[in-house]
Write a structure and sequence with these properties.
By secondary structure, the protein is an all-alpha fold. It has a domain at about 30-115 and about 205-334. About 80% of the residues lie in helices and about 0% in strands. α3 crosses α13, α6 (about 110-140) runs antiparallel to α7 and α8 packs antiparallel against α9. The chain starts with a helix and ends with a helix.
């Protein structure tokens, strides 16, 4: 309850979106869609999901410069997604750094910047996917121009990241000068920027950065294939454009404040995306529920096995993370 100001807005957004979806959805039709879905396609998507987790571990391990074993990174990725699906405040991201620091020779502050960079690149890849499908989804005059504009923004983002990687000390000095009158902002923002710039050091190693981009591209391609099979299970006429647009919308939906696991925002994003192609909210909602189950099964299986291997429980990790967060907060205040 001490954190009510932090979790309440997200909870309200989630509940509001769930209520809106249920208002427009015909529940009996949604149940029929679930019953008549192609479960062969859903099974294929589920199997692909575990491959996605393995590649995701390789993505992160590349940023870690192979300083942790693949096994440790793989199980920690699953644990992080499990925490994000069931715990508030996106604790899965902090949890990943915290848990991996206990089973590798890396410290928490060495690991955290790699997660920041990974998530930043996720946003860039999401934007790239949107750029590539907008002309096909909108199908209106001028949509190509919009795609070029977004492409320019993404390119500028890459250039800025490269400049910051090369001139991070200069950027930190500018930030400290601008926030000199706001000590609290300077302290919190400076700590974040130092971690972010530390992670950006991967851009100074061309070979490592290319390797990271390659595995990230493979990871997103696998995600598109998995979403394609899930959507095809409900909409036989669907093509890969549906999957790309749905995945992009799901990623942006997950960035909106919400209850744990992007509850409500994820479903609303998927329903919105699929109804751009077919005005069938009920079947689209059924597909969204299948995608959520897909995400839950992967994280529960891999995350639970990872926690059990370390003698941990979800509630135990949550208590440790909250204690760790409080200690960090006191250290920042002192």
């Amino acid at each position: 309850m001490k954190d009510i100001k932090r979790w309440l807005p997200g909870a309200i957004i989630s509940l509001g979106l769930i209520a809106a979806i249920l208002y427009f959805v015909d529940l009996p039709k949604m149940v029929d869609a679930l019953r008549s879905a192609n479960y062969v396609y859903l099974g294929i998507a589920l199997a692909i999901g575990f491959i996605w987790m393995a590649i995701r571990a390789q993505v992160w391990r590349t940023l870690l410069r192979d300083r942790a074993s693949f096994s440790d990174v793989f199980w920690t990725v699953g644990e992080g997604y499990l925490l994000n699906n069931f715990l508030p405040f996106r604790l899965g991201e902090i949890g990943r750094a915290f848990l991996l620091s206990r089973k590798s020779k890396m410290t928490f502050m060495e690991i955290l910047p790699t997660i920041v960079i990974e998530r930043t690149m996720d946003l860039i890849y999401t934007a790239i996917i949107f750029i590539s499908v907008i002309p096909f989804v909108v199908g209106a005059e001028g949509s190509g121009r919009t795609a070029y504009i977004m492409g320019g923004i993404v390119l500028i983002g890459f250039v800025l990241m490269f400049i910051l990687a090369r001139n991070n000390k200069w950027a930190l000095d500018i930030f400290h000068k601008l926030t000199a009158r706001f000590p609290r902002l300077q302290q919190l923002g400076g700590s974040f920027l130092e971690s972010f710039f530390s992670g950006l050091s991967v851009l100074n190693d061309g070979r490592l950065f290319v390797k990271f981009l390659f595995w990230m591209a493979v990871n997103w391609a696998i995600a598109i294939v998995a979403y394609y099979f899930i959507i095809r299970a409900f909409f036989p006429q669907a093509n890969v454009i549906w999957a790309m647009f749905g995945l992009g919308m799901a990623a942006f939906g997950g960035a909106i404040p919400s209850a744990p696991g992007a509850l409500g925002t994820f479903e609303a994003a998927i329903v919105f995306a699929l109804t751009r192609f077919v005005p069938d909210e009920s079947t689209a909602f059924a597909a969204a529920l299948a995608m959520r189950l897909y995400n839950y099964i992967n994280s529960i299986v891999i995350g639970a096995i990872g926690l059990s291997r370390e003698g941990q429980t979800l509630s135990g990790v949550y208590q440790e993370l909250m204690s760790f967060r409080n200690k960090q907060g006191k250290a920042d205040d002192s």
